[in-house]
C-alpha cells in the first residue's frame, strides 16, 4: 500500500516550512521512524520521519522549496505500486535560491502594482511568523500583497516577490496635499544599508544565508530597536555548587540525568524570578504584564546558529526534573529533533556562553522578555576570602535587562538573589 508522507503541523502559528535537505533518494529502502528530510521553519530545523517501511517511490518537493503544512512530501510503498497521477516528481538537485527566485517570478507576473491612492482594508488573514517579521522589517502593508498559498494565505515567496516588485517599480510620489499613511506616530528608524554582494573580490566566497541565520539577524536587530539594553555584571563563587555536584552526580547518572552546572543556574534563576516578578514580565504601553508561568529559555549553539529551547513550567521541577529536561532539550537541539513548540512560550532566557571559553558577554534580550542572564566560564581563580587568599571556582554573570522595566537597583537585586542561592547551595 502506498503511503503519503506529509508535512505535519509543527506548532501553533507555524503554517509552512522549507525543505532544506532530502536525507533519502528515490529507490532507497526505509524503515519505520527513519528520517527522510530536514524541514526548516523560522524557529527550528527538524527532521521528518516515516512511520512505515518500504521503498521511496517518489519525492514530491524540491530542496529549498517553502511549502504549507499538509503538503505531500513523498510516497513510500513497494516496487510496482501505483502513485496518484497528480503527484509531481521533485528535482532533488534543485537549489534553494533558484527555486525561491522562480516562485517569486511566477507570483510577480500575476501581481498588480500597488497604487498609493488605494486604501485597502486592514489585512486580517493569518500569516506565519517569518512573513510577519519580513513585513515589519520592510514596512509592508500586507493588504497590498496577493497571497498564493492555501486559502489565499500570504507565503514567504509572495512577500519576497512583492518586495522585489516594489524595488523595481517604486510608487509615484503622493500629492503634497495628501498626508502619508502611517501606522505609528513615531518615525521609523532608517535602515542601515547593507553592502551589496558585488563588493566581494575575485577570491572571496559568498556564503548563502540560511533561514535560521536570517531569523536570528532579524530578531537581534528588532530587539536592539525595541528596548533600551543595560548590562550589569556580578561574580559568582560556585564552591558550594561544586561540592553538592560532586556528592550527587553519580546518583543523578543512575537516574538517567547528567548533573551540570547549568542545572544549578536554572534552578537558582527560577527561585530568584519568584522573588523578583518584574524580571519575569513583559512591557506593554498599557502596563507591565507579570507572567505567572516561569518558562526558561536556554540558549544552545547549533551548527546553523543559535536556538533557544524552552523549559516549560521550570518552577514546578526539582533538580532532577530540571536535569532531565535540560539534557533532553540539549540533545534534541544538537540532533535537529526539536519541534517549533519546543522554542515557544519562554518568559526568561539564560545563555551559558562560558561553555565555549567566554569569560564575559553582554547578551541581547530575547524579545519580549525583560532580560537575559549570561554565565561565563567557570574556572579556578584567586579570591580574597576573610582577608586570606583562596582559590575558588568563579564565573562572571552578566544580566542584560530592559531599562523600561527594571532599574539598576531592581536588576542588581535580582542578580544578587541568584548569587546568594548559588553561593549558599546546600
Shape label: globular
Structural class: alpha+beta
Count every beta strand, where a strand is a DSSP E run of 2 or more residues: 19
Mean pLDDT: 81
Please give the largest β-sheet. Answer: 7 strands, mixed
Architecture (CATH level 2) name of the domain at 229-423 = 2-Layer Sandwich
- Could you give the distance between the termini? 60 Å
SS summary, helix count: 8
Jot down its keywords.
Chloramphenicol Acetyltransferase; 7-stranded mixed beta sheet; 4-stranded antiparallel beta sheet; 8 helices; globular
What does this molecule look like?
By secondary structure, this protein is of the alpha+beta class. Among the domains are: 3-94, Beta Barrel (OB fold (Dihydrolipoamide Acetyltransferase, E2P)); 229-423, Chloramphenicol acetyltransferase-like domain (Chloramphenicol Acetyltransferase, 2-Layer Sandwich), CATH 3.30.559.10. The protein is 27% helix and 23% strand. The protein is built from 8 helices and 19 strands. Strands 9, 12, 15, 16, 17, 18 and 19 form a 7-stranded mixed β-sheet that branches. The protein is globular.
Amino acid at each position: 500500500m502506498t503511503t503519503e508522507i506529509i508535512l505535519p503541523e509543527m506548532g501553533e502559528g507555524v503554517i509552512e516550512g522549507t525543505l532544506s535537505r532530502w536525507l533519502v533518494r528515490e529507490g532507497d529502502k526505509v524503515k519505520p521512524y527513519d528520517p527522510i528530510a530536514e524541514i526548516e521553519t523560522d524557529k527550528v530545523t527538524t527532521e521528518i520521519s516515516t512511520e512505515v517501511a518500504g521503498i521511496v517511490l517518489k519525492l514530491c518537493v524540491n530542496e529549498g522549496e517553502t511549502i504549507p503544512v499538509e503538503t505531500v512530501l513523498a510516497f513510500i510503498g513497494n516496487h510496482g505500486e501505483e502513485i496518484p497521477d497528480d503527484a509531481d516528481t521533485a528535482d532533488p538537485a534543485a537549489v534553494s535560491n533558484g527555486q525561491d527566485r522562480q516562485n517569486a517570478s511566477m507570483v510577480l507576473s500575476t501581481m498588480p502594482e500597488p497604487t498609493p491612492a488605494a486604501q485597502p482594508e486592514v489585512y486580517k488573514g493569518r500569516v506565519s511568523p517569518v512573513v510577519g517579521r519580513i513585513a515589519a522589517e520592510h514596512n509592508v502593508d500586507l493588504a497590498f500583497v496577493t497571497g498564493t498559498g492555501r486559502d489565499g494565505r500570504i507565503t514567504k515567496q509572495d512577500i519576497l516577490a512583492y518586495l522585489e516588485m516594489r524595488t523595481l517599480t517604486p510608487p509615484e510620489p503622493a500629492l503634497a496635499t495628501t498626508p502619508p499613511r502611517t501606522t505609528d506616530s513615531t518615525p521609523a528608524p532608517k535602515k542601515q544599508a547593507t553592502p551589496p554582494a558585488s563588493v566581494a573580490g575575485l577570491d572571496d566566497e559568498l556564503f548563502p544565508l540560511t533561514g535560521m541565520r536570517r531569523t536570528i539577524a532579524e530578531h537581534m536587530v528588532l530587539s536592539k530597536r525595541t528596548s533600551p539594553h543595560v548590562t550589569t555584571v556580578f561574580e559568582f563563587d560556585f564552591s558550594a555548587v561544586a561540592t553538592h555536584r560532586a556528592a550527587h552526580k553519580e546518583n543523578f547518572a543512575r537516574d538517567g540525568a547528567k548533573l551540570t552546572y547549568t542545572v544549578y543556574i536554572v534552578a537558582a534563576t527560577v527561585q530568584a524570578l519568584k522573588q523578583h516578578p518584574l524580571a519575569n514580565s513583559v512591557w506593554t504601553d498599557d502596563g507591565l504584564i507579570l507572567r505567572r508561568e516561569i518558562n526558561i529559555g536556554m540558549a544552545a549553539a547549533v551548527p546553523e546558529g543559535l536556538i533557544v529551547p524552552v523549559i516549560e513550567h521550570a518552577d514546578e521541577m526539582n533538580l532532577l526534573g530540571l536535569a532531565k529536561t535540560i539534557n533532553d532539550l540539549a540533545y534534541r537541539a544538537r540532533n535537529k529533533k526539536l519541534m517549533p513548540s519546543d522554542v515557544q512560550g519562554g518568559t526568561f532566557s539564560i545563555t551559558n556562553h562560558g561553555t565555549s571559553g567566554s569569560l564575559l558577554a553582554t547578551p541581547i534580550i530575547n524579545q519580549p522578555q525583560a532580560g537575559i542572564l549570561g554565565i561565563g566560564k567557570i574556572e579556578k581563580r584567586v579570591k580574597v576570602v576573610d582577608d586570606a587568599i583562596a582559590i575558588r571556582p568563579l564565573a562572571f554573570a552578566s544580566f542584560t535587562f530592559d531599562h523600561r522595566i527594571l532599574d539598576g537597583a531592581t536588576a542588581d537585586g535580582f542578580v544578587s538573589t541568584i548569587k546568594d542561592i548559588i553561593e549558599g547551595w546546600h
